[in-house]
Design goal:
Blueprint: H1 3-25, H2 27-32, H3 34-46, H4 56-75, H5 88-116, H6 120-133, H7 135-145, H8 149-172, H9 174-178, H10 192-197, H11 211-232, H12 240-258, H13 267-284, H14 288-320, H15 324-336, H16 341-347, H17 354-382
């Protein structure tokens, strides 16, 4: 590796790590969001002219590695067995959410496919992913479908803008509005604190004894990525990326079900760090003019999907007898992923629903990759 490339690789790895460090200590950085900051800084760096052309192969190589490697580390924290801890209303709300996002994205696709362009089916798959499990699925599906950097950033930017408004709605007006249509919450759960602690995005509390088990988890993640990548070569070239992501997802989910690897601390935080690296690197490749040209249609597409999905989810929850707090917290776990669940649970003054939100969010991570790719390829075939 050339000295210049080595320098830039260190830079691409170090800036997200430094941003995570700041996020764990500065409330404003945490509020803005580490990934948002990495996207913004990456776009500035990439469009400032400071990056030499010789660095582009390094950037593309890093993108090929970090997302597949992040998936096992994130999925190691989950266990399929936890599904039995999900109450009946949680299961109904989970299924309602999957149906709602599929319908919302499909309708949005047919309305906006001409405005979005030839990658509209890829955008649809990514929106399925981000609204079933957040950034991990967004990145994984975008990588699997090989969407352009500019459209990837445009999707994420639109999601951040609309998501900020939606999160404010969930924390303020959602409960007073939805309890007009949904029954009140009855029940309790004592596992909220444990669920909340398992999904911190920072390495707070890391100690020396955590290092060797975590390195073992990283080594296992590398092995899973190698197996998934190898399996992908058994399929046609245009399907190889999708097969690799789905193979890695499957192996990463099955492993914690039969081992104690889920007990290793800070695997989720390691996977999240890799996602911040991905966010930073891909944004340095994005063309700012292309992002702006795609911004309005993408923003409209995303906003419509959110509205349809949320309205349909609440309607289906009403039919299924889901209470208002469970409906809200499972919506949040789908739209934003598990780390946002405790914050919204506190705002609606019900910490008892944290575990339900965590479990549905984790299951959304799992289902999102399969559902997102299935919907994307289906839409491509029929449009």
């Amino acid at each position: 590796m050339q000295v210049e490339n080595f320098f830039w690789m260190i830079f691409f790895l170090a800036f997200p790590a430094f941003t995570l460090y700041l996020g764990s200590r500065i409330r404003l950085v945490d509020r803005i969001g580490v990934i948002v900051i990495c996207y913004g800084m990456g776009v500035l760096v990439g469009n400032s002219g400071v990056l030499p052309a010789i660095v582009k192969p390094l950037q593309e190589s890093m993108l090929d590695v970090v997302v597949p490697l992040s998936l096992p580390l994130i999925f190691f924290q989950m266990r399929i067995q936890n599904l039995r801890n999900l109450a009946k209303v949680g299961v109904i709300s989970l299924l309602a959410g999957l149906v709602a996002v599929t319908v919302g994205v499909t309708l949005g696709f047919f309305l906006f496919k001409d405005l979005i362009g030839e990658e509209s089916w890829k955008v649809a798959g990514m929106l399925i992913g981000v609204y079933t499990g957040g950034t991990p699925n967004l990145a994984a599906i975008g990588q699997a479908l090989q969407i352009s950097q500019s459209n990837y950033i445009a999707v994420h930017t639109a999601d951040v803008l609309t998501g900020a408004v939606l999160l404010l709605f969930f924390m303020t007006l959602a409960k007073p509005l939805f309890r007009r249509f949904l029954p009140i919450y009855i029940g309790g759960n004592q596992k909220s604190l444990e669920a909340r602690e398992n999904f911190s995005t920072y390495f707070s509390g890391f100690q020396r004894q955590h290092l060797w088990p975590l390195l073992g988890a990283w080594a296992l993640a590398v092995l899973i990525v190698a197996i998934g990548g190898g399996l992908s070569y058994l399929f046609p070239k245009d399907l190889q990326n999708a097969v690799a992501i789905l193979s890695i997802t499957t192996l990463s989910v099955l492993l914690p079900a039969n081992t104690n690897i889920y007990k290793i601390k800070f695997t989720y935080q390691s996977g999240f760090y890799l996602l911040t690296v991905f966010s930073f690197v891909i944004s340095t490749l994005a063309d700012l003019s292309a992002i702006f040209s795609a911004a309005l249609p993408m923003l409209s597409f995303v906003a419509l999907v959110i509205v349809i999905t949320l309205v349909l989810h609440i309607f289906l929850c009403r039919l299924g007898g889901v209470d208002v707090d469970t409906a809200i917290i499972t919506s949040v776990s789908f739209f934003y992923s598990p780390p946002f669940v405790p914050m919204v649970a506190a705002s609606i003054r019900n910490q008892d629903v944290v575990l339900a939100g965590m479990i549905t969010g984790v299951l959304g991570w799992i289902f999102g990759n399969y559902l997102g790719l299935a919907v994307a390829y289906t839409l491509r075939s029929i449009s």
